[in-house]
Design goal:
Layout: E1 15-21, H1 23-27, E2 45-54, E3 57-58, H2 62-65, H3 81-84, H4 88-94, H5 104-117, H6 128-141, H7 144-150, E4 159-160, H8 162-173, E5 178-183, E6 189-198, E7 204-205, E8 222-223, H9 228-231
Antiparallel strand pairs: 1-2, 1-6, 2-3, 4-8, 5-6, 6-7
Length: 232
């Protein structure tokens, strides 16, 4: 993450960007990541919940900005399964460390990392469960793979129109989201992420970008990869 996006703004966040990732597209990039097998391919998972100042300006980690002046966030070591309690099954399902999801220790470290880098600057910094619950509520409410499947878009290695895919997602959410793309080991542009955002009362609001297809191309189709592209 470019530190330039941290400059010139301090204080509480304006909205929460929630980034949903398609795990096969995370694992099969042109710099392949050796993800645990079998790959997660039955759902989009959470990449992160990012408190933001603007559509392009992240809040820096707590110790760089002092984004809260009246409450000191709980430290990373406080983020345990005991603390998360009843959230743990949903966290494992919706917010795994895609690369090491079979490793419990790495998963726990991943949640600590998310808290330190992003969650400490969310509201109620002394109650991390609110940050994690708010974020996982999105995939619990909206099944993005099902939404795309119902629109005729399946992770079958076929190529689809990104604008039409985005329209399908937007119609299901009732607000504009943003699709993001990357390239896989075959050199094909593919669906990578779906970005949504919540206002400070946890209501979905438009993502606030000029286009709902983000960095995805308008002049060619994009691939929706299956796990097979990575496994073979």
């Amino acid at each position: 993450m470019d530190t330039k996006v941290y400059r010139s703004t301090k204080g509480p966040y304006k909205f929460l960007k929630i980034v949903m990732v398609w795990p096969p597209s995370f694992c099969n990039t042109d710099e392949p990541i050796d993800c645990d097998k079998p790959l997660i391919d039955d759902r989009f998972t959470i990449h992160g919940g990012w408190p933001m100042y603007t559509t392009t300006r992240w809040i820096a980690p707590y110790n760089k900005t002092g984004c809260h002046t009246t409450e000191i966030p709980l430290p990373a070591e406080a983020i345990t399964r005991e603390l998360l309690g009843e959230l743990v099954p949903d966290m494992i399902h919706h917010w795994p460390d895609v690369e090491f999801y079979l490793n419990e220790t790495k998963t726990d470290d991943f949640w600590k990392y998310q808290w330190v880098k992003h969650g400490m600057c969310f509201k109620h910094p002394t109650n991390p469960k609110i940050y994690f619950q708010t974020t996982i509520n999105i995939p619990k409410t909206y099944n993005f793979l099902q939404i795309l499947n119902q629109g005729g878009y399946k992770p079958d290695n076929e190529f689809y129109n990104a604008t039409k895919m985005a329209t399908t997602v937007n119609d299901a959410l009732g607000v504009a989201a943003e699709l993001r793309c990357n390239k896989n080991t075959l050199g094909n542009v593919q669906l990578h992420e779906i970005w949504v955002r919540l206002n400070k009362t946890d209501i979905l609001i438009p993502v606030g970008r000029p286009s709902s297809i983000g960095n995805c191309p308008t002049d060619k189709l994009i691939q929706f990869p299956s796990a097979t592209l990575v496994s073979d």
